[in-house]
Write a structure and sequence with these properties.
The protein is an alpha+beta fold and 660 residues long. It has 14 helices and 36 strands.
Length: 660
């Protein structure tokens, strides 16, 4: 609950001060325990790095990935682009940073919550660190921080610029600290513009902070309209186009990860075209716990929209979503797409990128030597080792020797191998993503238009078989002022995808489990060049290559019409008609697999008989909305807003699952 917006403390100085006291008291009570835990964590956490010719910034990123530390620095003040090599094993972060920064003129400080502040060292610090107190004269500065009404601001941050020297204001908005003679103070607080001043020798300061007008005037999209952030009465989070332009992602939901507070986004797997799951609240509504998604006012799927088309996103979390009824109990995500602007010359924009995907984490099974050595350690007779100690040298040499008539361990009738086979490396490689977008927009005195075309191609990580997803996007928008105060908006969108992959990835036995079950001595091919099968397990590469295919095609078209009539000043009537049609056609074929032994003899057949299946789904939805919106300003801060309307929805679904 956003108590600050509901209680409106700005209208009650007493309530505002009481709440600030509560928050500041809590802050002071946990500060000591945080400092102690940060110190212990930095001493107990051991890190290992093996980095060659990479920038300092990349090294810091690797430290963050291995630990709970987070680095804070100003990029324009600290040069972290120098390339270095670091080779350490089981060392503390202090040891690593000391080696990293000792020749770079950079100092650091580990604070509570495991934040590490990085700042440039001054010349005095480099020349004589021990005499810093003598070389830098400091003055004792006192002051009070207030708002425009003269009310003290509790908990305002007061920091000496370029240093970690700082404090916060007390219950009366006062502060006391030592500042360098030529130091600059930065005073800031949430919702207020930061103020900088040079105190010099002045002992007492009176600092007045002004509200951040840009932040308060930000226009936020809410239910059936927009409102300035300063006038919001509920919990609304936003993300703009920068969140999507700065990340090479195929899915719009993926770009929102970490951007919107309170929005949890998860992904069940990394396969091309896989969807993301979003949660704003717990499972409680007829949506199954997922938020309602509206794209330009029409219900849609955020996983299907082109990220390049998005202008901004608002996430409604509480009462602000109530206007959408029962389906909004888990929140509402409002997506606004880009549009053309009136009186704008035609502009054409093109962007493209190509990226490489690498597996983030792979389970690494024991190699052949580890397997053989561990088996020899079992001396109670419960397991018969496959290799003798004399044969360990052959394994260490990665020998190509094959004993075709050997009896080894519990295996009889199978050749004995001495060469380690890394099935992770043989089957799993790198994927890639390609993305291309063209945007054409413009407008005249009474009209605007926008046309967007996009194409994405994503390939998976298996080295055998096929695993690719292709997506196509078309969006056309226009706005025409038919008569004075009467505007017609047309928004057409089409998204299509074609997913082709080996049926072994999803049908039948789990291919990833099969990779780890395959013996570490099993070669992929027999001498005849045919896929080789050891024991009863299928060859994973053969399953991907010869086991069949899945083809999944989807198409989604949305026609969004809207008519806006400004009846009088402040009163607007809006009518919207949306038709959305979604089709999904999936064809699955499973083919027979023949297993061959070392002599290229057929030993068994798997996945028999051949099978084929088609799954088809069609959804047609119609949505009609009519509402009146009245807003009135009374010549001052008082504002009135009334909205009334009706909404009619129809949904048709058809599913077919014939077999052949």
């Amino acid at each position: 609950m956003n108590f600050w917006n509901i209680a409106r403390p700005e209208e009650s100085p007493v309530l505002k001060k009481t709440l600030s006291i509560m928050r500041l008291t809590t802050l002071f009570s946990i500060a000591c325990s945080l400092q102690i835990s940060a110190s212990v964590y930095s001493q107990e956490t051991k890190l290992s790095l093996d980095v060659n010719n990479q920038t300092i910034k990349e090294v810091l990123f690797k430290i963050e990935k291995q630990s709970g530390f987070r680095f804070i620095y100003e990029s324009e003040k600290v040069n972290l682009n120098k390339k270095v090599s670091v080779h350490v094993k089981e060392q503390t972060v202090e040891t690593i940073l000391k080696r990293l920064f000792e020749q770079e003129g950079i100092k650091y400080e580990i604070t509570e919550n495991n934040f590490i502040l990085i700042n440039p060292s001054t010349k005095n610090e480099k020349a004589a660190p021990s005499s810093q107190a003598v070389l830098q004269k400091k003055n004792l500065v006192k002051g009070v921080v207030t708002d425009e009404n003269g009310e003290p601001i509790i908990g305002a941050n007061v920091v000496e610029k370029g240093t970690t020297n700082g404090t916060v204001t007390d219950l009366d908005g006062k502060f006391t600290m030592e500042v360098s003679e030529n130091g600059v103070l930065q005073i800031s607080y949430i919702g207020y513009a930061m103020t900088e001043l040079r105190p010099g020798k002045e002992a007492n300061l009176n600092v007045k902070l002004r509200e951040d007008a840009l932040q308060m005037d930000e226009v936020v999209v809410v239910g059936y309209g927009t409102v300035k952030r300063a006038n919001l009465g509920g919990a609304v989070s936003t993300a703009d186009a920068k969140a999507f332009e700065s990340r090479p992602v195929q899915n719009a939901a993926q770009a929102l990860q970490g951007e919107v507070p309170g929005l949890t986004i998860t992904r069940a797997g990394g396969a091309p075209g896989s969807d993301m799951t979003m949660k704003v609240r717990d499972v409680s509504s007829i949506n199954g716990g997922t938020p309602l998604v509206l794209i330009d006012g029409a219900e849609g799927n955020i996983n299907m929209i082109n990220p390049s088309d998005i202008e901004n996103i608002s996430v409604l979390k509480d009462g602000t979503a109530a206007i959408y009824g029962a389906r909004a109990s888990d929140g509402v995500i409002l997506v606004t797409t880009k549009s053309g602007k009136r009186n704008q010359k035609t502009s054409v924009a093109f962007d493209a990128y190509y990226s490489i995907k690498t597996p983030a984490l792979l389970r690494k099974p024991a190699n052949l030597l580890q397997h053989a050595e561990m088996a020899l350690e079992i001396t109670d007779g419960s397991f018969t080792p496959e290799y003798t100690r004399d044969q360990l040298d052959l394994i260490r040499q990665n020998s190509d020797l094959v004993l075709t008539d050997a009896e080894w361990g519990r295996w009889t009738g199978y050749p004995q191998f001495f060469k380690d086979q890394d099935w992770n490396d043989m089957l799993i490689g790198n994927g890639n993503m390609q993305n291309y977008n063209v945007n054409i927009s413009g407008g005249g005195e009474r009209y605007s238009y926008m046309l967007s075309l996009g194409h994405q191609r994503e390939e998976g990580i298996p080295k055998f078989g096929e695993d690719v997803n292709k997506r196509y996007f078309v969006r056309a928008k226009s706005s025409v002022e038919i008569f004075k105060n009467l505007t017609y908006d047309l928004n057409l969108a089409y998204e299509a995808s074609n997913r082709d992959y080996s049926s072994g990835l999803t049908e039948g036995q789990n291919i990833w489990e099969l990779i780890y079950k395959t013996r570490s001595w099993t070669p992929m091919y027999n001498p005849s060049g045919t896929f080789y099968t050891f024991e009863g397990f299928d060859n994973p590469a053969q399953v991907l290559e010869d086991g069949g295919m899945v083809n999944k095609t989807t198409g989604n078209i949305t026609v969004n019409n809207q008519l806006r009539w400004k009846v009088i000043d402040g009163l607007q009537l809006v009518g919207q008609a949306v038709i959305r049609k979604y089709d999904q056609d999936e064809n699955v074929t499973n083919k027979k697999i023949i297993n061959y032994d070392w002599d290229n003899n057929e030993v068994r057949e798997k996945r028999t008989p051949n099978s084929a299946e088609r799954r088809y789904q069609k959804t047609l939805s119609k949505n009609f909305t009519l509402y009146a919106d009245y807003k009135k300003n009374q010549g001052g801060p008082e504002r009135y807003s009334v909205r009334r309307g009706v909404r009619l929805e129809k949904l048709y679904e058809s599913c077919q699952n014939p077999h052949s």
